[in-house]
Each structure stands twice: as C-alpha cells, then as structure tokens.
C-alpha cells in the first residue's frame, strides 16, 4: 500500500517531467521566431523593391505619354508650316516647333534615366526574389525539423499529463490542492526531503517542540519558513 507521501512524490516526479517538456517546448519559440524574422526581412525587401519599381514604371508611362503628345504637336506644327501664307506666320510656326522639339529632347533624356533606374531596380528585385526563394527552401528543412520536435514534445506531453492525472488521483484531494498552491508560486518542486532536522529547501532548522511530529513516519509538514512541504528521511 502506497502512503500519501509516496503518492505525492510520484505526482511531483510527473510534474518535473511535464516541466521539462514545457521548457523544451518554449525553447522552440525563439527558433521559430528567428526563422520568421529572417523570412520577413527578405519579404520586406522584395516588397520595397516592387513598390519602387512600380513608382518608376508609372513615371516611365507618364513621360512616354508626354513624348507622344509633344511629337503629335510637332506634327501639327509641321502641317501648319505647309499652310502658312506669310513670313510672320512662318517664323511663329518654326519657333513653336523648335520649342516642342526641345521639350521632347529633355523628356527623352529623362526617359533614358528612368529606363536605366528601372533596369537596376529589376536587377535588384530579381536578386532579392532569388534570395527569398533560397531562404524559403533552406527554411523548409529547419521548419520541418522544428515541427517534428514540436509533435514529439506534444505527444510526450499528452502521455505525461495522463500519467499526472492518474498520480494525482492517488493523493488525497486536500493534499493535492495544498501541493498545487505551493507549486503555483513558480516552484518546480513543492515537496522536499528534510536534511537532518532542517528544511531541505531553505535549511531552516525545525523547532524542538515540532520535531517529534515532523519525524513520524509518513508525515508531510509545511515548512514555516519557506512554505514548502517537507518529510523526514531517516
Ligand atoms: Zn523551508
């Protein structure tokens, strides 16, 4: 027949296993975060380049439209030239046409600059997209590894929790409640074997008048100094 103390120690051992699994599970989080952050940086770079490229493409389309418009204007001026009847009209038409030609020349040189920038932007974007693909391919292995570890831990956790439930059922409910309350104060362990006549956790010596109670077989006492459960080990 198992004493309450023995049952409680089994329960504590189960909780230690669960605690270790929780630690392993939370250790996976920074690994996932790191993978996500690296991928996100790459995605952000691609998004920035794509936005820069589409802005440049808009400029390109605008300048192209303007050039077409001004070339039409030159053509119209040309037609007017053919229809002029005097010198004054001819001079005016020539001046207009030359102005339009100068505008077109400026716009064409602007267009060259834009085209060059676009080429560069396309090159950068291509490099970044290649990098992103490489990161994703590389991460596929790492992510599968993390997912595998998580699944293994989850599986072990389910088993450990079942074992814990079974162990807890063998300890009187009031004692389990006391034990859980102590553990909820961020302790991994709540039950300690005494070291001689002192608390195994905080080393406070047990007062003389309590020693005969504490050392009786199977007794579980609360340490008045640190609040853990303790038992005497002969
Ligand atoms: Zn203590």
Shape field? rod-shaped
The ligands bound in this entry are: zinc ion
Report the portion of residues in β strands: under 5%
Element-level helix/strand string: HHHEHEE
What's the count of strands? 3
Total count of domains:
2
Number of helices, where a helix is a run of at least 4 consecutive DSSP H or I residues: 4
Mean pLDDT: 93
CATH architecture of the largest domain, please? Orthogonal Bundle
Helix content: over 70%
Query: Strand order within the widest sheet?
Result: 1-3-2
| Rg, Å, rounded | 41 Å
The assigned structural class equals mainly alpha
Oligomer: single chain
Question: What CATH first level of the largest domain would be assigned?
Answer: Mainly Alpha
What is the CATH third-level topology name of the largest domain? Helix Hairpins
**Describe the biggest sheet?**
3 strands, mixed
Please mark out the parts with pLDDT under 50 across 5 or more consecutive residues, or reply none. none
End-to-end Cα distance, whole Å, is 20 Å
Annotation keywords:
binds zinc ion; Helix Hairpins; 3% strand; 234 residues
Can you lay out the helices and strands and say which pair or pack?
Elements: H1 4-83, H2 87-169, H3 173-183, E1 191-193, H4 208-214, E2 221-222, E3 229-231
Parallel strand pairs: 1-3
Antiparallel strand pairs: 2-3
Helix pairs in contact: 1-2
The structure holds zinc ion.
Zinc ion is lined by residues 199, 201-202, 204, 223, 225-226, 228.
Notes on the structure:
This protein has helices at residues 4-83, 87-169, 173-183, 208-214; strands spanning 191-193, 221-222, 229-231. It is mainly alpha-helical. It folds into two domains: 4-170, Helix Hairpins (Orthogonal Bundle); 172-234, no CATH class. It has a three-stranded mixed sheet with strand order 1-3-2, covered by helices on one side. The mean pLDDT is 93. Residues 199, 201-202, 204, 223, 225-226, 228 line the site of zinc ion.
């Amino acid at each position: 027949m198992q004493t309450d103390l023995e049952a409680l120690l089994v329960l504590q051992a189960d909780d230690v296993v669960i605690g270790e699994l929780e630690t392993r599970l939370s250790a996976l989080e920074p690994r996932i975060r790191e993978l996500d952050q690296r991928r996100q940086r790459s995605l952000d770079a691609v998004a920035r380049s794509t936005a820069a490229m589409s802005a440049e493409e808009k400029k390109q389309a605008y300048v192209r439209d303007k050039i077409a418009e001004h070339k039409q204007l030159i053509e119209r001026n040309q037609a007017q030239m053919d229809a002029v009847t005097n010198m004054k009209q001819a001079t005016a038409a020539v001046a207009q046409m030359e102005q339009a030609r100068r505008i077109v020349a400026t716009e064409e040189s602007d267009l060259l600059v834009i085209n060059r920038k676009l080429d560069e932007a396309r090159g950068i974007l291509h490099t970044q997209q290649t990098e992103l693909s490489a990161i994703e391919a590389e991460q596929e292995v790492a992510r599968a590894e993390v997912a595998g570890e998580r699944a293994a831990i989850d599986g072990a956790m389910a088993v450990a929790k079942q074992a814990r439930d079974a162990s807890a059922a063998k300890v009187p409910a009031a004692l389990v409640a006391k034990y859980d309350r102590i553990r909820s104060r961020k302790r991994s362990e709540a039950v300690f074997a005494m070291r001689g006549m002192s608390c195994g956790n905080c080393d406070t010596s047990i007062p003389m008048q309590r020693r005969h109670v504490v050392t009786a077989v199977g007794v579980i006492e609360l340490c008045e100094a640190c609040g853990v459960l303790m038992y005497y080990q002969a």
